[in-house]
Design brief:
The chain is an alpha/beta fold and 194 residues long. The protein contains 5 helices and 6 strands; from the N terminus they run ββαβααβαβαβ. It has one domain: Rossmann fold. The N terminus and C terminus are likely disordered. Pfam families: SRPRB (PF09439).
Length: 194
């Protein structure tokens, strides 16, 4: 992948070495552009895990939008029912002015707490397919989600992707004669390569 700026769903094959043999993994890249978000629904029922990529350099101006998108994913019926694990991947952390993964995690938890409070006022009929997240009476934390949410740092440009590869190894189990569907979300307009 090489700095794609077009807005379309793309996919690629990726082989993961596990226990001495290569297992194919199907990665689906759905850009975070608002016009493409409905495409995500096509892939969530088949996803084994989600890599949600945020730009650690340009995080603050995009924090609210990224948090909204992640909130929608974490409350999605397919994600909750299938207990799909999510990796919040902070890309470009090799840059000197990049925000740390802890800063990004805390800011996104604060934003999701605001969303949780405002959206809890919406009637159940309006969000029939979604689940609520968090523990009532407590400030939101990713540890309150139905599924596991992990935060990691990476740099697609320098190839520092060990944490992503470890996440894939942990959550992707080889299937006989079949390629596993994967979902890699990105919020910035730059493709993120493994």
């Amino acid at each position: 992948w090489d700095g794609l700026t077009h807005y379309q769903t793309t996919s690629c094959a990726f082989s993961m070495r596990q226990k001495g043999k290569l297992n194919p993994v199907h990665l689906v890249d759905v850009p975070g552009h608002s016009r493409l978000r409905p495409k995500l629904e096509e892939f969530l029922p088949q996803a084994a895990a989600i890599v949600f990529v945020v730009d650690a350099l340009e995080f603050l101006p995009n924090c609210r939008a990224a948090s909204e998108y992640l909130y929608d994913i974490l409350t999605n019926a397919n994600v909750v029912k299938n207990k799909i694990s999510v990796l919040l991947c902070c890309n470009k952390t090799d840059k000197l002015t990049a925000h740390t993964k802890e800063f990004i995690r805390k800011q996104m938890e604060k934003e999701i707490e605001k969303l949780r409070a405002s959206r809890s006022a919406v009637s159940i009929a309006d969000i029939a397919n979604d689940f609520s997240i968090g523990i009532e009476g407590e400030v939101f934390s990713f540890s309150h989600c139905y599924n596991k949410v992990t935060v990691a740092e990476a740099s697609g440009l320098t190839g520092e992707t060990v944490q992503i590869q470890d996440f894939i190894r942990e959550y992707i189990k080889p299937l006989a004669q079949t390629c596993i569907n994967r979902l890699n979300l990105r919020l910035d307009s730059y493709a993120f390569g493994l």
